[in-house]
Design a protein that fits this description.
globular, single chain, alpha/beta, five-stranded parallel beta sheet, 21% strand
Amino acid sequence: KELTHFINGAQVKGTSGDFGDVYNPATGEVQAKLPLANPAEVSKAVEDAAEAQIAWGATNPQKRARVMMKMVALMNRDMDVLAEALSREHGKTIPDAKGDLQRGLEVIEYCVGAPQMLKGEYTDDAGPGIDMYSMRQPLGVVASIMPFNFPAMMPLWHVGPALACGNAVVLKPSERDPSVPLMLAELFVEAGLPKGVFQVMNGTKEAVDTLLDHEIIQGVSFVGSTPIAQYIYSRATANGKRAQCFGGAKNHLIVMPDADMDQAA
């Protein structure tokens, strides 16, 4: 099986010629080949997202919230299919995979209330003859670089609020379990999200660096190890981007006596 990127509302095959292996943790077998985007592919996806974001950012928050509302319904409809796909690539049990999805779904439910949260403020007589008001506006195109351990929850935590606020998002999921993020992107389009507003680009450090250096990208979200969080934060902020980087998480495991110690290490 050959996986794809998700660009402009459609599954798109990679053109770089580079591929990574996606394993089934239960068997150790390769179950899919994943295209790894080169800088030109990533840049084109970012540019297309910027074009799509203009109309999406101008869409009133109530209409954007309706997309979130529909997304909630679609995720509930496809919960079993999503959980099975997540389990096959990550190795979680089906109940745990559904928990991963549910925790992400709850953030999308929260985003249905975005119109209330996006209201500005107005102050009469802030000074002699002076009134003040504030407006909340989208940044434009933002990047999300996500880890392997929660392939549904983490992308949804970052992508949902960004979209609800009128931004376009370019997501770089983990190469180890990319199928659920790709499926979620399809569901967003089915929910009414305009094509190009949410792009999913698979890749390695080369793709990440392209996002961190691209002048169109206005903000970056990352979850992963502390050293990589420090690297992404430093490079993104050096390029004038907003960055939120969560590092230092610990995921414990138990190595059983019959485990392959080399693989476990």
